[in-house]
Design a protein that fits this description.
Blueprint: E1 3-12, E2 15-25, E3 30-34, H1 41-49, E4 56-61, E5 64-65, H2 71-74, E6 76-79, H3 91-100, H4 110-123, H5 139-152, E7 157-161, H6 169-186, E8 190-194, H7 197-203, E9 206-211, E10 214-219, H8 221-226, H9 231-236, E11 241-248, E12 251-253, E13 270-276, E14 281-285, E15 291-299, E16 302-308, E17 315-321, H10 322-328, E18 335-340, E19 344-346, E20 364-366
Parallel strand pairs: 3-8, 3-9, 6-7, 7-8
Antiparallel strand pairs: 1-2, 1-4, 4-5, 9-10, 11-12, 11-13, 13-19, 14-18, 15-16, 15-18, 16-17, 19-20
Helix pairs in contact: 3-4, 3-5, 4-5
C-alpha cells in the first residue's frame, strides 16, 4: 500500500500544527515520524487514520482519495500508547472484538474468528494468555495484545502512536526488535510515531524528522545521522557541540582546535557554525595546549570530558573509550590538544527552510 501526502495543512483554532506537509511512503515500508511533543507527528498519524481532518491538502493511498473515506472504510490497524484494552474482556475477547462487532453480512463465523485469534496470539507470542485479563499482564504483554487486536481485522496499514512510550527501557528494546521482525514477516506498510531517536533509528526503513509542523528531513537512519539537513535536525538528534567557526578557502577553522582532518568544504568564506558530536573529537595530552579539561564524568564504557576552549565560555563535550583514557591518563585540569575528526558546517548560522524529500537543503556542508 503506497501513500502520498500532499500539502497537508492543519490548525487547531489559530495555532498551525501542520504547515504544508508532503510525504511519499512506498508499499511495505516501515516509517518513523520522529519529533518532539507538539511537532505535529501524532496529528499527521491521526489524519491518516481518519481520526482527524486537515483544513487542506490530499492523502492518496494507492491513488485513492482517503480524505473521502471514513475510518472504518480505510481498514486501518491503530495501536495506542496506553494499549486501550477493554479491562472486562479476556485477552482472547479483546483480540476478537474488531471482528465480532462487524455487521452480520461481513462478520466471520465464530469458528473463523476463533481461528484467527489463536493464530494472532501465537504470532505475537501470547498463545498461552488468551484466558487472562489485561490487569494480569505486564506492560509489554498488553502492548502485544493491542498489536494482535489491530492485526485481527487484516488492516491495509498499521499505525502506531508512541507504542512503547509507557514501557521501561529494557522491555522497549526487546519489543522494538520483535516488532521489526514481525514487520519483515508481514510486509505491511507501517508508520509509527516516536520522540525517541534510538527507537526510530533501530526500527525504521526511513525516518521523517518533523519540527513545528514541517518536515525537516526524510532519509534512512544513516542519512539522517550522518548528513543532517539543517541545524534543527543536528540539534534534535542530541549530543552535539556547536562551535563558532570561520571558513577560509574552503577550510573550516575553530579557535583552539585542530580541524585539519575535517576536509574541504563547498561553501564560501565567512562566519559559520561547526556541529560536532562528542565522539567525533579526540583529546591528546599537550602541556602547551590552550584547551583545559574542566570535568571528567565516567559513563559505562565511555568517559565524558568537558573541555574549555580559548573562546570565552565555550565548553566542548567529548566522549572517549574508557581504554583510551586509561592509556592517556587524562584528568581534570590537564592541558590538551583538541582534534576534530569530522563535523557538519552550516552557513549562515540560522534555521534553514523545510527540506525536500531527498534531504537536501541550501548552504549546508557535511564533512568526512
Amino acid at each position: 500500500m503506497s501513500i502520498e501526502i500532499r500539502n497537508i495543512f492543519k490548525q487547531f483554532g489559530t495555532t498551525p500544527v501542520l504547515r504544508g506537509v508532503d510525504l511519499a511512503i512506498a508499499d511495505g515500508e516501515l516509517i518513523a515520524l520522529l519529533g518532539a511533543s507538539g511537532s505535529g507527528k501524532t496529528t499527521l498519524l491521526r489524519i491518516l487514520a481518519g481520526l482527524d481532518w486537515p483544513q487542506s491538502g490530499e492523502v492518496l493511498v494507492d491513488e485513492s482519495d482517503w480524505l473521502r473515506l471514513s475510518p472504518q472504510e480505510r481498514q486501518i490497524g491503530f495501536v495506542f500508547q496506553h494499549y486501550a484494552l477493554f479491562p472486562h474482556m479476556t485477552v482472547f475477547e479483546n483480540v476478537a472484538f474488531g471482528l465480532s462487532i462487524r455487521p452480520r453480512e461481513t462478520r466471520p463465523a465464530k469458528a473463523d474468528i476463533a481461528r484467527r485469534v489463536v493464530e494472532l496470539l501465537e504470532l505475537v507470542q501470547m498463545g498461552a494468555y488468551g484466558g487472562r485479563y489485561p490487569a494480569q499482564l505486564s506492560g509489554g504483554q498488553r502492548q502485544r495484545v493491542a498489536l494482535a487486536r489491530a492485526l485481527a481485522i487484516q488492516p491495509k496499514m498499521l499505525l502506531l502512536d508512541e507504542p512503547f512510550g509507557a514501557l521501561d527501557a529494557r522491555i522497549r528494546k526487546d519489543l522494538r526488535r520483535w516488532l521489526r521482525g514481525l514487520h519483515e514477516q508481514l510486509g505491511m506498510t507501517t508508520i509509527f510515531v516516536t520522540h525517541d531517536q534510538e527507537e526510530a533509528f533501530e526500527l525504521a526503513d526511513r525516518v521523517v524528522v518533523i519540527g513545528e509542523g514541517v518536515i525537516e528531513q526524510v532519509g534512512t537512519p544513516d542519512e539522517i545521522y550522518e548528513q543532517p539537513a539543517s541545524p534543527f535536525v543536528a540539534r534534535f538528534l542530541g549530543g552535539v557541540n556547536e562551535l563558532p567557526a570561520e571558513l577560509r578557502n574552503g577550510h573550516v577553522h575553530v579557535a583552539g582546535a585542530d580541524t585539519s582532518r575535517v576536509g574541504r568544504l563547498a561553501l564560501g568564506d565567512g562566519q559559520a557554525v561547526l556541529f560536532v558530536r562528542p565522539h567525533e573529537i579526540d583529546l591528546l595530552p599537550d602541556v602547551s595546549g590552550t584547551a583545559i579539561i574542566r570535568d571528567v564524568v565516567p559513563s559505562g564504557a565511555l568517559i565524558r570530558y568537558e573541555v574549555a576552549l580559548p573562546q570565552a565560555d565555550k565548553v566542548v563535550e567529548v566522549e572517549l573509550a574508557r581504554e583510551t583514557t586509561r592509556e592517556r591518563a587524562l584528568t581534570r585540569g590537564d592541558a590538551v590538544r583538541v582534534n576534530i575528526r569530522r563535523g557538519r558546517v552550516f552557513h549562515p548560522p540560522k534555521r534553514q527552510p523545510a527540506t525536500s524529500q531527498n534531504g537536501k537543503v541550501a548552504q549546508a556542508a557535511h564533512t568526512h
